[in-house]
Amino acid sequence: MVPNKDDFQSVLSHSRQLVAEQLELTEKVIMDVAKAAPAGIAERLESLFQRKGKRIRSTLLCLIAKSGETEPDSNRVAHACAGIELLHLASLVHDDIIDGTDIRRGQKTAHKEWGTQVAVLIGDYVLSQAMRCVINEESRDVPVVLSDAADKLISGEILELDHSGDMNLSFEMYDRIIDGKTAALLDAAARIGGVLAGFTKEQADLCAQMGSHFGIAFQIVDDLLDYGFGSKDLDKAKFTDLSNGLITLPLLYYFEACNAEERSEMETLVKQASEAGVPEKIIELMNAKEVFKKAKACAQQHLEKALEIAQTLPAGQFTDEIVQMFSAMDSRGN
Ligand code: FPP
Ligand code: MG
Prior knowledge:
- By secondary structure, the chain is mostly helical.
- It has helices spanning about 10-20, 20-35, 40-50, 55-65, 75-100, 110-115, 115-135, 140-160, 170-195, 200-225, 240-245, 250-255, 260-270, 280-290, 290-310, 315-330, and strands spanning about 105, 105-110.
- It is built from 16 helices and two strands.
- Helix 5 (about 75-100) runs antiparallel to helix 9.
């Protein structure tokens, strides 16, 4: 299959195919978690695990792990990937409760299906199992990196909540929030990939930086998709950020570019964002200041930094694939 280089989904599905065996093993590790769970949890986990995401984090981990000189141990890679994907899933289950979102991965969110109390506990179970996946990993770095990533996700999410509705949010604080809630896990996936590839500490650090830049770009694009900018076949609801008081990069650019009167008008609209017709009005005003384009350019800068580092990885088909994945990311529509 030759991927359409301008279509992220097509490039990503090519990348997944390149590491398909490894991802299948990962799937088995994940499904075994469901099978081993007690009754009452097992069925819910099976249902949750069937709603597969894009597997971006585990695909990146596999590509990096395979870009080294020696073939990595497939069992270690599968358990590390399962740890990363389960941590991601646990955070999404909890995030959907926090955001009050009804749809995820094209289906009902866990709390919509089972109620908030059960969904909190299912998220807790998935988090615990994520850590268990790497408990026997021979490099002590891997569980430490995964646990650190969980801490950063939680800190990022708390920072975001602390700044909910903060119309004076700074660019610096926005960076800290997305660094925690999104970049940290891609940073961790890339670092673990580097460890399993047998890279030196310096090379693994570079992998982590690469994952972090990719993660920041990924979240900026995600924030743009929430406004409907560039969205195509979106498998989750739009305009949830504004309705939840989340101030993201496009709005920060708007506040930077507008005058006092425009700011006051926008602040009023943002407070009414859950009312019908208001998001469209907000988007119209923001479009006039070209803030979506500015945010996209910012995402592209981070992708360029990620690409610069990717070029330093050992040459070969897996590194080429990482380059393709990064190059196409800003075109993703869901
Ligand atoms: C999605 O962001 C949210 C995250 C990527 C992180 C959520 C983190 C937590 C809830 C804390 C960590 C929890 C555990 C169990 C470790 P978003 O709401 O902007 O994106 P979305 O549109 O996909 O919901
Ligand atoms: Mg959310």
